[in-house]
Amino acid sequence: MSYLGIVCRRIKIHIFGVMGQLLLPLFPSDIRMITLTLGVREENGTVYYLHSGMPIFSHASGDMNMFRYITSNLILQGLCANQDIVDTFHVSADSVRRWKKRLSEEGEKAFFKPEARHGRSHKLLPDVLDRIQARLNEGKSAYAIAREEGISEGSIRYAFGHGRLKKNPGSGNPGKNA
Questions:
Q1: 21-37 burial, b for 16+ CB within 10 Å, e for fewer?
Q2: Tally of CA atoms within 13 A in the half-sphere of 4 that contains its CB
Q3: Higher-confidence residue: 155 or 116?
Q4: What's the pLDDT score for residue 23?
Q5: What number of other Cβ atoms are within 10 A of residue 104's Cβ?
Q6: Residue 124 — φ and ψ, nearest 5°?
Q7: pLDDT per residue over 127-163, tens digit each?
Q8: Confidence bin at 177 (pLDDT 50/70/90)
Q9: Where are the beta strands (DSSP E) in 2-113?
């Protein structure tokens, strides 16, 4: 066999693999590439992640928890590096590192468990608010109460502003003693 025949045979094996199938990654033109073999595409409100042209993950465009899970998963599987995600999606390196750590330590459930607080302050629960209101009615200052409760005075002022606490009727200023 001639030298040219050997080179052509090697190129053919390299490009088409042993079984004759094309191994080159083929991507549509509107793909944003993360790495040479990994890309992302958004279509009709759904984000698709493609590896060598084949879809491997998808999620709704606004689903940030799924985005964090998928990108962390891609990094942990070795398909891309932290910096690839940072460069492609313009997110901070610290965020990517936190998401990856969260997935490796807590698993996938960490991204999808419901938040326990439901938008309420975890320090100013109803029983704490009752204690604070009783002290305010006694004429104590918001600063003194905050120190006793181990919370910030700003938390008490926030509760005033949202109507969760009432100012002491005898005092014109909730932050000062009468």
A1: eeeebeeeeebeebeee
A2: 0
A3: 155
A4: 55
A5: 12
A6: -100, 70
A7: 888 999 999 999 998 899 989 988 888 888 888 888 8
A8: very low
A9: 32-33, 38-43, 46-51, 54-60
Q: What is the pLDDT confidence band of residue 7, given thresholds at 50, 70 and 90?
A: very low
Instruction: Give φ, ψ of 49 to 5 degrees.
Output: -110, 130
Cβ neighbours for 173, distance < 8 A, ≥ 6 positions apart: none
Q: Are 50 and 75 in contact (CB under 8 A)?
A: no
Q: Which residue has the tokens 């045979």?
A: 9
Q: Which of 30, 72, 22, 80 is nearest to 51 (CA)?
A: 80
Cβ contact 58:47 at 8 Å: yes
DSSP SS3 for 172: coil
Closest CA to 164 of 140, 128, 139, 135: 128
The model scores a pTM over 0.70: no
Which backbone phi and psi does 39 adopt, to 5 degrees? Answer: -140, 170
Q: Contact at 8 Å (CB) between 124 and 159?
A: yes
Quick check: 70 and 111 in contact, CB under 8 A?
A: no
Of the two residues 117 and 163, the one the predictor is more confident about is 163
